[in-house]
Design brief:
The chain has about 90 residues and is mostly helical. About 75% of the residues lie in helices and about 0% in strands. Helix 1 packs antiparallel against helix 2.
Amino acid sequence: MSKTFNRAQSKAYLEERRKLQQDEQHKKNVREELAVLGDFRNYMQRKRPTATTLGCLIAAVDAYVEQLTGDMHALWASSVDIKRWWDE
Protein backbone atom coordinates (compact mmCIF):
# COMPACT_ATOMS: atom_id res chain seq x y z
CA MET A 1 0.00 0.00 0.00
CA SER A 2 1.20 3.43 -0.83
CA LYS A 3 1.16 6.47 1.42
CA THR A 4 -1.34 8.16 -0.89
CA PHE A 5 -3.75 5.24 -0.60
CA ASN A 6 -3.39 5.18 3.20
CA ARG A 7 -4.08 8.92 3.41
CA ALA A 8 -7.16 8.63 1.22
CA GLN A 9 -8.44 5.68 3.23
CA SER A 10 -7.82 7.51 6.51
CA LYS A 11 -9.59 10.62 5.23
CA ALA A 12 -12.60 8.59 4.09
CA TYR A 13 -12.76 6.82 7.47
CA LEU A 14 -12.65 10.11 9.38
CA GLU A 15 -15.36 11.61 7.15
CA GLU A 16 -17.63 8.60 7.65
CA ARG A 17 -17.06 8.73 11.42
CA ARG A 18 -17.88 12.46 11.47
CA LYS A 19 -21.11 11.84 9.52
CA LEU A 20 -22.16 9.09 11.95
CA GLN A 21 -21.51 11.36 14.93
CA GLN A 22 -23.54 14.16 13.35
CA ASP A 23 -26.38 11.75 12.61
CA GLU A 24 -26.42 10.48 16.21
CA GLN A 25 -26.39 14.04 17.55
CA HIS A 26 -29.30 14.97 15.27
CA LYS A 27 -31.32 11.95 16.47
CA LYS A 28 -30.58 12.88 20.09
CA ASN A 29 -31.72 16.47 19.50
CA VAL A 30 -34.95 15.29 17.85
CA ARG A 31 -35.68 12.88 20.74
CA GLU A 32 -35.16 15.67 23.30
CA GLU A 33 -37.34 18.12 21.40
CA LEU A 34 -40.09 15.53 20.94
CA ALA A 35 -40.07 14.83 24.68
CA VAL A 36 -40.62 18.51 25.47
CA LEU A 37 -43.27 18.88 22.78
CA GLY A 38 -45.03 15.75 23.98
CA ASP A 39 -45.17 17.08 27.54
CA PHE A 40 -46.52 20.40 26.29
CA ARG A 41 -49.14 18.72 24.09
CA ASN A 42 -50.27 16.50 26.97
CA TYR A 43 -50.50 19.55 29.24
CA MET A 44 -52.64 21.34 26.66
CA GLN A 45 -54.98 18.37 26.37
CA ARG A 46 -55.39 17.96 30.13
CA LYS A 47 -55.73 21.62 31.15
CA ARG A 48 -57.89 22.64 28.19
CA PRO A 49 -57.52 26.44 28.34
CA THR A 50 -60.24 27.13 25.71
CA ALA A 51 -61.41 25.14 22.75
CA THR A 52 -60.08 27.64 20.20
CA THR A 53 -56.70 28.04 21.88
CA LEU A 54 -56.37 24.33 22.41
CA GLY A 55 -57.05 23.44 18.79
CA CYS A 56 -54.70 26.10 17.44
CA LEU A 57 -51.84 25.22 19.77
CA ILE A 58 -52.10 21.47 19.26
CA ALA A 59 -52.27 21.97 15.49
CA ALA A 60 -49.15 24.17 15.67
CA VAL A 61 -47.28 21.57 17.74
CA ASP A 62 -48.28 18.80 15.33
CA ALA A 63 -47.20 20.89 12.34
CA TYR A 64 -43.81 21.54 13.94
CA VAL A 65 -43.39 17.83 14.74
CA GLU A 66 -44.14 17.07 11.10
CA GLN A 67 -41.35 19.47 10.07
CA LEU A 68 -38.97 17.74 12.49
CA THR A 69 -39.77 14.13 11.72
CA GLY A 70 -41.89 14.02 8.59
CA ASP A 71 -44.67 12.37 10.62
CA MET A 72 -47.47 14.59 11.93
CA HIS A 73 -48.69 11.84 14.26
CA ALA A 74 -45.33 11.14 15.92
CA LEU A 75 -46.42 12.45 19.32
CA TRP A 76 -49.71 10.63 19.46
CA ALA A 77 -48.50 7.31 18.11
CA SER A 78 -47.06 6.30 21.49
CA SER A 79 -49.44 3.35 21.78
CA VAL A 80 -48.12 1.91 18.53
CA ASP A 81 -44.85 0.02 18.81
CA ILE A 82 -43.19 1.39 15.71
CA LYS A 83 -39.47 1.97 15.66
CA ARG A 84 -38.86 5.48 14.38
CA TRP A 85 -35.63 6.70 12.79
CA TRP A 86 -34.96 9.04 15.74
CA ASP A 87 -35.26 6.16 18.22
CA GLU A 88 -32.63 3.97 16.56
